[in-house]
Structure formats: C-alpha cells, structure tokens
Write a structure and sequence with these properties.
By secondary structure, this protein is an alpha/beta fold. It has 14 helices and six strands. Strands 3-2-4-1-5-6 form a six-stranded parallel sheet, with helices on both faces. Helix 2 links the parallel strand 2 and strand 3. It is globular, with a radius of gyration of 19 Å.
Length: about 325
C-alpha cells in the first residue's frame, strides 16, 4: 500500500551490503562525520537477548552513536516489514526533529524496499493459518513446507533458503491467506522511483571481491562459534525460547542449536554456518542489485563513500 503522505524532504542516508562486509564500522564513521543517528535495518537485531549471532553493535559502539530499532521485541514475538516501516518512519521523524540525519544500515532488502517505495497491501494472516503452519513445521519439518512453497510459489522459493524459517512461513502464510503467491503480490505492487517516499535519499552499497567477502564470512563465523555464543543460545533456551521459533532458526542460531543438541560436531556446525552465510550473502547482493538504485563502493575505499555523501549533502 503506497503512502499518500508528502515525501520526506530532509536528507536520509542508507548503507547496504551483504553480511560481514563491514557496514557497522563504516556506519560509525559516517555517523561521526555527518551527525547521524543509526537505524538498524536488520530483521534479527530487533530481538532481545540475541546479540552475538546477530552481530549487533557493541554497547560501546551504541554509546558512541545513537542506535534505533535494536532490541525491540522478544524472540518469540513476530516482527515483519510492516512493523519495520512504522518504526523506521517514527525514528526518522524523531531524528530529523533533533536536527540530526538518519542513517539506515543493514542487509534486509525487503525492509529497505518497503520503506522506500511503500508496501503492497499489508496482508492480515488469520491466526488459525499461522498456528496451523507452525504446527506443521514441528510435525513435518522445514523440508516438507519448502516443497509446498516451491509448488505454489517457485519464484519465492528460489530466493528463500530452505532453512530460512521466518520467510518460508511468511510465503506460505500469504499464499494460504490470499490464494495468491507472495511473488505475485510483489509484482502487482506499483513501481515507483526510489524517491517515492523520500525527496532526498542516498543509497550507498558496499561490495568487495568475492573471495575477500568469503574470507570475511569465514572469520566472522569462526569468531561467532565460540563459547560465548554457546552460552547465549543456552541462555535463550533457559528463558523458554524453543528451537522451533523462527528467530531461533535463523543463521547462526540453528547451527549452534544443532551442535548443542549433539546432532553434529563443532567443526561440522562451523562449516555449515560458513556455507549458509555465503549463500545468504549472495542472495542479499542479488536483491540489492535488482531492487534498488544503489551507488556501489568497494569497502576497501571508505573515503570514496564519505566523499559521495558530502557531495550529496552539498548538491
């Protein structure tokens, strides 16, 4: 549903790119130089108690720069693009009201496109459909539901990994609630220019050589799969957040859960995490390249990003 409100006139920045590319470090530098407050555009960082596996900015980093949309909900609550748009617009208005500039940063492409161009009609899924699909997930497993999604919406199935429980369920929820595939809803959405909600928006993308990105992913995965992360996941289980929750089946968490359950050894869990994170990064890059008018920069050249922002603000 496209918003009819006047476009937001004050400038907004967005820094996007695949996981592990280095968005957090550069976002802090941008925020410092251009008086920004950061709005997280990450579908996992909204969850409380999930810090290591979501690579949240540290408490020290959050003290350096004000961050928004982190630790918004508990791991068993639903948080989707519609909620993100509502929360992000409120944060943007608040930041502009303080005379600062919003800097959106993250890798959830659907959140960004929904914020910029508006969402197709927000689909209300009846509780009984949602409950039935979650029961089937427990009884039949992800593979069975993924086969169903591929049968009714191959286009969405091909962009969603079989282990991406949250989007797998969302795709089936939309189909069962409307009888229309998620991908068709997206295609039916009117195409608008990137400025449809914002008069002054700069989209900056970070990229690097594929092997460099893969090495970054490997290093982050090794750092993640340490005792502190195991303790974080054990703490979530102790709080009553079960392994079947979509948030607990996200990248990193499902790998640690598999290891803690004794279903694989540590090296296997790590190797699988690296593989799945690589695949996720490729899907992120594909999304941003296809959906948004992004000014791409090599992560090794942050000064070119800063110069681009400076020109944008002074144009």
């Amino acid at each position: 549903m496209i918003a009819t409100a006047p476009a937001i006139a004050a400038p907004v920045l967005a820094l996007v790119g695949p996981t592990a590319i280095g968005k957090t470090a550069l976002s802090l530098r941008i925020a410092s130089q251009f008086c920004c407050e950061i709005i997280s555009m990450d579908s996992m960082q909204v969850y409380r108690y999930m810090d290591i596996g979501t690579a949240k900015a540290s408490q020290e980093e959050q003290r350096q720069v004000v961050h928004h949309l982190i630790d918004m909900v508990d791991p068993d609550e639903q948080y989707d693009a519609a909620r993100f748009v509502q929360d992000a617009l409120a944060a943007i208005a608040s930041i502009h009201g303080r005379g600062h500039m919003p800097l959106l940063t993250g890798g959830t492409g659907l959140y960004l496109s929904s914020l910029i161009s508006g969402m197709f009609d927000i689909i209300k899924v009846p509780d009984h459909i949602r409950a039935n699909l979650r029961q089937r997930l427990e009884q039949e497993g992800r593979a069975a539901l993924y086969r169903e999604l591929m049968g009714v919406d191959r286009e969405s199935g091909e962009r969603i990994h079989v282990n991406d429980t949250q989007r797998l369920l969302r795709g089936l929820e939309i189909f069962h609630a409307t009888g229309i595939p998620w991908s068709q809803h997206v295609r039916n959405q009117p195409q608008h220019r990137a400025e449809s909600r914002f008069s002054r928006l700069l989209l900056v993308g970070l990229n690097c050589e594929r092997e460099v990105l893969y090495d970054r992913i490997r290093q982050r995965s090794i750092a993640m799969m340490r005792d502190e992360f195991a303790q974080e996941v054990e703490g979530l289980l102790a709080r009553g957040y079960g392994s079947e929750l979509p948030s607990m089946q996200s990248i990193g968490y499902r790998h640690m859960l598999t290891y803690l359950a004794g279903d694989c050894d540590h090296q296997t869990a790590l190797s699988t995490l690296i593989r799945d994170t690589r695949r996720y990064a490729k899907r992120q890059l594909t999304w941003f390249r296809n959906q948004q008018q992004v000014a791409w920069h090599q992560v090794e050249r942050p000064d070119t990003v800063l110069a681009t922002i400076d020109r944008f603000l002074n144009s």
